[in-house]
Amino acid sequence: MENMVNIFLFGKKYAVPANLTIMGAMEYAGYQLVRGCGCRNGFCGACATIYRIAGDRELKVCLACQTKVEDNMYIATLPFFPLVKQVYDVEKISQSEAVMMQLYPEIYACVGCNACTKACTQGLNVMQYIAYAQRGDFEACAEESFDCVMCGVCSSRCPAGISHPQVAMLARRINGKYLAPKTEHLENRVKEIKDGTFEELLEALMQKPVSEMKELYNNREIEK
Ligand code: FES
Fold first, then answer.
1. Ligand 1 centroid to 74 CA: how many Å?
2. Which ligand 1 atom is at minimum distance from the Cα of 42?
3. Which of 25, 131, 136, 145 has CB atoms 3.0–4.6 Å from 16's, for a disulfide?
4. How far lies 194's CA from each of 78, 133, 191, in Å?
């Protein structure tokens, strides 16, 4: 008999094997995951989840694909978090801190509570990267937010209504387009791709069975 634990999905009780992730447990319980499930490996941020263990006052957040179930876990998922997403043309955008004031002025209403950092499923210093964005240090903001998976949990806890992942995305775009040093290697490689240098190779690759592709990927040569 497997070691089972009781969990509550959307308020309903289920007994599930203790070694499952929350995502696995939802499927075990019969839920078909149409939204709130993507890569299953902690990269896409689609499976943001909040939970509380019975008797514990703390409300916790996690990625459902990365977190094991616990006994008496009360779980609710956030399959989509409605962030504020401004539309802009990165080709025309200003690179000064004024752009943040125009597009995401709410970042200047940050009260410094640090709830965003405590909520981050990736352990990022979210409040710090917002501070960098406030003063127009896009490079530092891009660096500090680099591992953001845009799950939106930070924003769900923010009393100032900041859409942190979108602010960071803007900083990374400005950094990538205007501030980070250009690599000659990359430009050459893009030109090679455009010139069709790899067409034949790609064509041959696409004919291979998935298992062989995986094998090739796992043993690929990584350029220094
Ligand atoms: S499914 Fe992609 S992060 Fe969990």
1. 19
2. 3
3. 25
4. 40, 35, 5
Please state the atom number of ligand 1 nearest to the C-alpha of residue 39: 2
Give me the phi and psi of 118, to 5 degrees please: -65, -30
Residues in the ligand 1 pocket, defined by CB under 6 Å: 37-40, 42-47, 63, 65, 149
Instruction: Give exposure, 174-203, as e/b (b: 16+ Cβ within 10 Å).
Output: bbeeeeeeeeeeeeeeeeeeeeeeeeeeee
Domains and CATH numbers, the chain: 4-77 (3.10.20.740), 98-179 (no CATH), 184-218 (no CATH)
Give which of 35, 37, 60, 41 is closest to 50, Cα–Cα.
60
- Degrees to nearest 5, angle at CA 106 with 57 and 178: 115
Burial class, 32, CB count within 10 angstroms (exposed 0-12 / middle 13-18 / buried 19+): exposed
Question: pTM of the predicted model, to two decimals?
Answer: 0.82
* CA angle (29 as vertex; 24, 35 as ends), nearest 5: 60
Residue type, 224: K
SS (H, E, C) 91-153: CCCCCCCHHHHHHCHHHHHCCCCCHHHHHCCCCCCHHHHHHHHHCCCHHHHHHHCCCCCCCCH
Beta carbons of 108 and 130 less than 8 angstroms apart: no
